[in-house]
C-alpha cells in the first residue's frame, strides 16, 4: 500500500495551473468556489514557491491540511498560507469566500512597509472570526479587494496597494491577541533549506535589475552555485536562473502593461544590454514579442 506522504508535493503557481503568473499584477483575487468547483471541492496538498494565500471563508466548512496538521473548521474564519507551506483543502459545496494571493515581491514590499504588522503573512495559521466589528471590517476589505481587482478603474494599483496593506494590518490585529508563538499546535518549523530559498528570493527582489550571475547569488548566500541550484530544484521545482528570469519577466509584463516606457527603456531598466536581447528573452518565455504583448494587454484591459 502506498503512502501519500511519501509522494513528492507538487509546486504550483495557482492550484492546477502551470502557466506563469496569470496577470502582470502582483495580486490575484477570486472566489473560493470559482477554483475549488473545478477540482470537485478538493484542493490536494501542494505548495507555492513564491505565493502567499489569504483565504477568507465567510461561511461553509473546510478540512484544512497545513504542514502536516489537519483541522475541520467552520466559517467564518481566515487562513494564512505563506510561500513554501504545504497546504490542502476540502471544502463543503456551500462554501462562500475569497482567496487573495500575493506574489512574493508584494509580500516583501509589505514586510518593508509594515514591519512587525506584516509578520502575520509569514506564519501559517488560521483565525476564527467572531461577529465583531473587526471581523466585519476584514470581510469588507476582502470584498473591496475583489471588486477593485475585477473592475479596473483609474488609480487601481494604488487602491489595491492600500487595501492589501489594510488587510495585512487587520490580520495582524486578529492574530495579536493569540500571539504568533503560543502553545497551541501549529505547523512544523520549516527546515534550513526553506530559509535559504527565502533569502535567495529576497536577493532576487533586491538585485534582479542588475541580473547577477547564479554564482554571484550563491556567493552572497555562502554556498556553491551547484548547491543553490539543487536547493531551488528541490523546493521550487525550478533552477536558480529560472527564478531570476521569472522575476524579470513579471516586471517586464508590468511595465509593458502599466507604463508608457518604450521597449528600449524597459530593456534598459531590466539590465539588458540591447533591446534585441530583451525581445528574444521575452518571446522565448511568453511566445509573444514585447510589442505584441503590450497590444494584447491594451485590447484585453476593458474586459478585465
From TrEMBL:
Residues 198-296 form the HTH araC/xylS-type domain. PROSITE patterns: HTH_ARAC_FAMILY_2. GO terms for molecular function: DNA-binding transcription factor activity; sequence-specific DNA binding. SUPFAM superfamilies: Homeodomain-like (SSF46689), Regulatory protein AraC (SSF51215). Pfam families: AraC_binding, HTH_18. Keywords: Activator, DNA-binding, Transcription, Transcription regulation. This is Helix-turn-helix domain-containing protein. It comes from Billgrantia tianxiuensis.
Amino acid at each position: 500500500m502506498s503512502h501519500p506522504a511519501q509522494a513528492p508535493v507538487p509546486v504550483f503557481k495557482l492550484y492546477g495551473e502551470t502557466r506563469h503568473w496569470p496577470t502582470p499584477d502582483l495580486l490575484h483575487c477570486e472566489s473560493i468556489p470559482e477554483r475549488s468547483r473545478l477540482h470537485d471541492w478538493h484542493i490536494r496538498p501542494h505548495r507555492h514557491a513564491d505565493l502567499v494565500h489569504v483565504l477568507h471563508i465567510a461561511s461553509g466548512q473546510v478540512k484544512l491540511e497545513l504542514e502536516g496538521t489537519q483541522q475541520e473548521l467552520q466559517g467564518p474564519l481566515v487562513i494564512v498560507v505563506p510561500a513554501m507551506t504545504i497546504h490542502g483543502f476540502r471544502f463543503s459545496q456551500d462554501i462562500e469566500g475569497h482567496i487573495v494571493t500575493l506574489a512574493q515581491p508584494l509580500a516583501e514590499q509589505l514586510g518593508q512597509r509594515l514591519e512587525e504588522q506584516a509578520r502575520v503573512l509569514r506564519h501559517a495559521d488560521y483565525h476564527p472570526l467572531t461577529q465583531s466589528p473587526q471581523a466585519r471590517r476584514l470581510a469588507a476589505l476582502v470584498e473591496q479587494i475583489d471588486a477593485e481587482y475585477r473592475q479596473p478603474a483609474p488609480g487601481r494599483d494604488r487602491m489595491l496597494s492600500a487595501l492589501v496593506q489594510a488587510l495585512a494590518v487587520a490580520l495582524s490585529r486578529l492574530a495579536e491577541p493569540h500571539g504568533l508563538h503560543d502553545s497551541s499546535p501549529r505547523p512544523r518549523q520549516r527546515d534550513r533549506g526553506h530559509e535559504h530559498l527565502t533569502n535567495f528570493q529576497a536577493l532576487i527582489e533586491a538585485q534582479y535589475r542588475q541580473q547577477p550571475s547564479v554564482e554571484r547569488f550563491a556567493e552572497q548566500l555562502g554556498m556553491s552555485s551547484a548547491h543553490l541550484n539543487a536547493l531551488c530544484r528541490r523546493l521550487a521545482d525550478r533552477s536558480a536562473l529560472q527564478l531570476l528570469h521569472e522575476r524579470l519577466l513579471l516586471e517586464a509584463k508590468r511595465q509593458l502593461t502599466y507604463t508608457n516606457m518604450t521597449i528600449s527603456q524597459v530593456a534598459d531598466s531590466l539590465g539588458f544590454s540591447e533591446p534585441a536581447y530583451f525581445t528574444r528573452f521575452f518571446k522565448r518565455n511568453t511566445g509573444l514579442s514585447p510589442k505584441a504583448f503590450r497590444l494584447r494587454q491594451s485590447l484585453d484591459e476593458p474586459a478585465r
